[in-house]
Amino acid sequence: MERIHWLRHRCRQLLAVDSERGWYSPPDGLPSKDSPQRGSGKRRTVFARYGPHQEEYEAVSKKYKGNGIRTTKYSLLTFIPMNLFQQFHRAANLYFLFLALLNWVPVVEAFEKEITMIPLLVVLMVIGIKDALEDYRRYLFDKKVNNKLVRVFCGKQNSYVDRCWKDVRVGDFVRLSCNEIIPADLLLLYSSDPRGVCYIETANLDGETNLKMRKVVSDLSLQGADFTPENFTSRIECENPNNDLSRFKGYIEHSGEGRVGLNSSNLLLRSCTIRNTETVVGIVVYAGHETKAMMNNSGPRYKRSQLEKRLNTDVLWCVVLLIVMCLASAVGHGFWLKSFKDSVFQVAGETSPALAGFYVFWTMIIVLQVLIPISLYVSIEIVKLGQIYFIHNDLDFYNEELDSRIQCRALNITEDLGQIQYIFSDKTGTLTENKMVFRRCSIYGVEYPHLENARRLEVYEAEQNEGAGRTTTLKSACSRKSLSCRSLSCNRSSVSLHTLTAESSEEEDQLSNHAAARTGAFCSRMAQDVVPDPELVRKLSKLCSSNLHLRDSASDNISSLELTYITDFFLALAICNSVVVSSPSQPRHMVTESQAPVRSLEEIKLLFQRLNFYSFSPPQIKGSPRSFTSKLFTRGKTGSFAFNTPPSNGADSSDQDLKNSQESCKLKSEVDPTDRGDSTATGSEEDLENFSKEKGGGDGDARNVEELCRDMEPEENGDDELLYEAESPDEAALVYAARAYHCTLKGRSAESLLVDLPGIGSLAVQLLHILPFDSNRKRMSVVVRHPLTGQVVVYTKGADSVIMDLAETQKGSEQVQEFYCKIKEKTQKHLDMYAREGLRTLCIAKKVLEEEEYEVWLKRQLLAESSIENQEELLLDSAQRLETDLTLLGCTGIVDRLQEDVPETIEALQEAGVKVWVLTGDKQETAVNVANACRLLRSNDQLLTANCGSKDALAALLEELLIEVQNGENGEEPSFDSTSSFILVIDGRTLEWALQEELKESFLQLSCKCKAVICCRSTPLQKSKVVQLIRDKIGVMTLAVGDGANDVSMIQVADVGIGISGQEGMQAVMSSDFAISRFKHLKKLLLVHGHWCYNRLANMILYFIYKNVMYVNLLFWYQFFCGFSGAVMINSWVLILFNLVFTSVPPIIYGVLDQDMPADTLMKLPELYGAAQTAKVYVPATFWITMLDAFYQSLVCFFVPYFALSRSDVGVLSFGSPVNTSALLIILLHQVVESNTLTWIHMLVLVLSAALYFAFAQLYSAFCVICSHPTNLFGVEKLQMSQPLYYIICTLTTVAALLPRILFRALFNSLHFPTSLKTAHRDEAAVEQYRRRMHRWNLKHTAASSLPVCADNPGLVPSEDEVMS
C-alpha cells in the first residue's frame, strides 16, 4: 500500500554543511570546481504582492503555484478512468484482460463470456475500493490543512487579515505567533525578538525535536515596532524550488543599497512550528507543492526481494510449460482431425486441421490460464502484510523509554531478513547509547582524571542496573521543563499538524513520545552533574583568588600560562557549539544579562594585575605592551612570547590594562545594548586598594580544595535552571562540563553569546561566524570577537586526527616549538589512553587573527556565501583556509556506554553465521575497545591492522596479511572458529586506497577471510562504498544499521536498511526499511521473524505453484480423450471459482501463521538461522521436485476415477465430479502434510474451504437449471454425492496421491534434522534424566539424610558418564 506520509523526512543526508550558505557567482581568483547543482542557472524572482512593483509581481507570479495542496490521485469524475488506467499497468491485470477479451472471440471461446471476466472484475473491484478509501482519507486531510487560517497582509485593508492556507500566494507577507505552524516556505524579515532571531521546531519535517534558530535577513533595516510591509521595496532572487532541506541560496537586493546573501538560516520551512518567539513576519518564496517539505513527498520505498527475483524466473518456466502444453494440444487436435478424412459428419467449408490447431492453441490458453500464477503476487502481498502485522505487534520490540515500536517501512522485503549474511553497523548510537557524559580531559598537556566523576558514573550505572535490571540512561529531570517552556508568553496556540499527508493518530503519538524522549535525552541528570577535578578546580580558582603572587618563580610563570590554556579551553567548550539555551522563565531561550552582571572594571583590573605575566620580553611582543587580558586570551598567536625573560614595565602595562578594559566594556554595550551593568570606573588607586581590602586578605591558594569543589557544584536555583538543547549529545555534554567549572553558557542570539567566566562574571561575546561541522572537515569552528581584548579569535573542536594535523606547524623560536611539541606529545598520549578506555575523544584548539587577516578572510567568506555556483566548494575552501596553524589547547574524553544486550546480540549473530562489520568515524583505539566490549573481538582473536601512509605500502601489506591469514587457516582444521580468528582494523585514509580499483580485489579477499572488519575514521561515502563492494562482488545479502544522517547512504545501499531511532534525529529512520529503537532487537528480528518470514513465504510460493500445476494438469490429461478440442469435464463455474474462492485462503493462512520452529528455540539456537540459509527452502531443486509431485498427483487424481468408471455409462460431468472433489481434498490435505504448525485457525479455514465447495456444488446443481448450459446438467453433483462409490473413489484417490509425499516428508525430517537441534534435545534429555535420577535417589535416602539432594542442589554434581547412562 502507498503511504505517502512515510516519505516527507527522506532528506537531510548531509549534516549541516549548507546551513550558513548563500548564492552568487564565484569571483575571479577564487577556486571553482564543477559540481552538479539542482536548478543550476535557474532563478526565482520574488516581489511583494502589495508594493511598488505591482507590474513585475503580476508578470512573475503567474508561473508560481498557489499554496493549496492536493495529495489525492483522483476526483469524482476521474476516479474510474484513472484507477483503471493505473491498474492495467500491472502485468497480472493485463493478463486477465487479455484472457477475457480472447474468450470473446467465437472461434476460440472456451467458456461463457461472463465467466472469464469474473477474476478480472473481482481484482479490479477489490483494489479500486481500497484505492478509493485511501484517496478519500487523503482528501479529508488536504481539506483540513488547506482550510487552516493564517494572518496575511492585505494591501487593500492595509492590515493583516485571516486567510486560509490555500489562499496564500508567493509574495504574501505572513504574520505568525508562537506555536503556529508555518504554512509555506517564508523568508524571515521580522522577529519580535530584539536580537532578530526566532526558534522553530522541525519535528513534523525531520523528526528532530531540538529547537533551531533562524535569523532575520542580515543588514535588513526592517526591525522594530514600525515594521510596515507596504514599505518593503526589495527584490528577492533565489534558486528554483528543490527538495534539499538544508540548502537555500539567494540574495535580497535593496533599493540602492546593494545585495545581501541569503542562506538556510533565513528560511522558515513549511510544516515547522514557531517556538518561543511571540511574533514573526516573513514573505512567501515557495508555496504549496513547491515547498521543500512537499517536494520530499516522492513515493514509497520499493525494493525487490531475492525471493521475488527467484519467483520471476519460475513464473517464466510456468509460461514455457503453458506454451508447451498448448502447442501439444494444438498439434494433437490437428492430427486428430486428420484421422477423420472420410468421416460422415464432415461438411463443406470446415477449417483445415492447421487452422483448427491454431484456434485450439488459443482456446487452451484460456482453459489452462491458472498455470500462470499471476494471482500469486496478490497472495504474496497479503501474506507480507500479515507478517508485518505480527512483527509490528511483537511486544519484545516495544521500547518503554521512547514509547515506540518497530516500524516496517518497506512492505516487500520481509523475507530478506531471513537471508542476511553480512551486517554493517555504525558504532555511536547504534552499538552505544549515544548519551554522552563528560568523563575526563587533558589541558596544556596535563591530564585530569576526574576520579570523583568516574565514581559518580559507576553509582549511576549501579542504580540503573539495580532498578531496571539493564543498562539504560536515566530519564531527564529537566525534560518537563524543556517541554513546558515552549508555550510561555505565546498569544496563540495550535495543534501540530503534519502538512504533507494524512498520518494516523497512532503514528503522531509515537512521534510526540519520541520527541519527549529526545528532548530530555541531552539534559539527563548523568550528563548535567559533572563532578569537577580538584586539581583543575584549584588552578582555575586563581581567577577568583584576591592575593595571588605569580611573580616569585618560574613555576608560577608556567602556571600562569597554564591558566591561560585552562580558561581558553573551557571558554571553547562553552561557545563552540550550536546549543540553544532556554529557561522556564524566559520564553526566548535567552537569559537576561542583568541576572549575572559583569564584574566592575576595578575588579577586572585588579585581577589582571594579580595575574600579569612578566615572562614576556618587549622585543618579542608586537605593537604596544599588552595587559594580562590580551595575553590571557591570545595564546593562539605562537611565536609572540619567550620564556624566562625579565619583566616588562609595570606602569605602562597597568595603563594599557585600563584602556583595554574600557574598550571591552564599550564593546559589550554595543553587542548587547540592554545591559546596563555596573561598568563605571574611576581608576583611582584608592578604589583599587579599597577593593582589595573588601575582597579579603587571605591567599586564594590557602582555600581548601574540597571547599572549592563545593563552590564549583551547580546551584539549585541558579545555573541549574538553564536548559540546553543541542543537535548532538556530545555538544550538550561539553557545555555541561564547562558549566561544572562555572564557565557557563547563559544565552545565545544570532550575533552574540552570554558566557559566565569564573572570577570575571558574565561576558557578552560577539559571534561573528559559525563554521558548522561536516563530515569532510570533521570539525566545527566559531569566530568571535573577544569581549575583553577585542581581538578576533577562532575556537575549533573536532576529531583528534584532524586537529592534531592542523596544529602541527608552529611558528616561533626553537624554545617555543619545543614547548608546543611537548604539549602535543603529552596530549597524544592522553588521547591514546582515552581511546583504549573506549572514550570518545575530541580536541580543542584556537587561533587569534589579526584584523587584516580577518578582513581578507571575511571578504572571501562573504563572496562564498553569495555565490550562485560551486558554493559548497567555496565555503569548504574558505573554512579550510581559516582553520590552519591552530594552537592545541587540550582534549576531552566522553563516555558513551554500550546499549543493553549488545554483546549477546553480536555473539548470537556470529553463531548464526552472520559476519558483523563495524563502520565508524571514531578513532582506531576507541573502535577496537568497543569491539572488545561487545564481544566482536575475543581474547584469542588475532588483530590485523592496516594503517598505511601510501597506496604502494597498502598493496604490499594486503599481500602480506593475506598470506598470514592463509597460513593460519592451513595450520588448523577448517571450521568457523578457525577461519574467523582474524579481525581486520583499517583506518579511513587506508580504506580510501583499498576501495580503489587496483586494490579492491585484494582487500575483498582479505576481508572475506576475516571474522570481522572494523573500519575507523570512515566517511559516509566510504561506508556506502564498502557495503556496495561486498554486496555486488560477493553476491551476499547485506544489512546496514545506523542511527544518524551519516549512515543514510549506507542504509540505502544495503539490501536491507535498519534505522535506529536514537539521539541524532530521524534521518536514518526515514531512509530505512525497518526502524527499531535498540540494537538488541536485531536478534529476534533476524533469528525469529526473518527465519519465519523466509520459510513461510518460500513454502507458500511452492505450495501455490504446486496447486496450480496439479489442477491444470487434470484438464490437460482430459484433452487426450476429447480430441484436444479444449473441452473440460468440470463445471465452468466451479472451474473458475476453484482458485478464486475454494483454495485461495488456505495458502495465505499457511504463509502467515506457519512456524517450523518455536521462537524460544530459534533464540536459544542461533545456528538454526545459518542452517536454514545453507539448506534453502526455495531453490531450483525444490521447484522441480514440486513440479514433479504435482504431475504425479494429477495423474493419480485423473486416472484413478477414470479406471474406476471406465466401463460405466457415466457422462462427462459425472466423471469430472469425483476428479474435482479429489483434487480439492488432495490440495487441502497436502497443506496439512507440509504445515509445521496446525492451529485452530488452520483447521477452521481448511474445513470452511471444503464445506464451501460442497455447499456451492450442491446448491448450484439443484437450483440452477439452465445456468451455464450445457456444461452444467441439472442434478449431476447432487446425484454423484449421494452415491457411496463417489466417496470411495475420492478416498482412494486422495490416499494414493498423498502417500509418496507423506513418506518423503517423514524420511526428510528424519535424515535432515538440524545438528544443533539434535544437540539441544540431547542436552535436555540428559538434564531430565539427571533430575529423575536425583529424585529416585532422594526417595531412597530420605531416612538417611534430612537434606534432600535434588537437581538444584549444587552439592551433588554427577559425572558425565552418570548423566549419559
From TrEMBL:
UniProt key word Nucleus: no
GO molecular function annotations of the record: ATP binding; ATP hydrolysis activity; glycosylceramide flippase activity; magnesium ion binding
Record's keyword annotation contains Membrane: yes
Protein name: Phospholipid-transporting ATPase
P-type ATPase N-terminal domain sequence ranges: 58-116
E.C. no: 7.6.2.1
Compositionally biased intervals (Polar residues): 641-655
List of residues binding ATP: 426-428, 731, 773, 797, 840, 920-922, 1017, 1023, 1046-1047
Topology versus the membrane: Multi-pass membrane protein
Cofactors: Mg(2+)
Similarity comment text for this entry: Belongs to the cation transport ATPase (P-type) (TC 3.A.3) family. Type IV subfamily.
Residues annotated for Mg(2+) binding in this entry: 426, 428, 1043, 1047
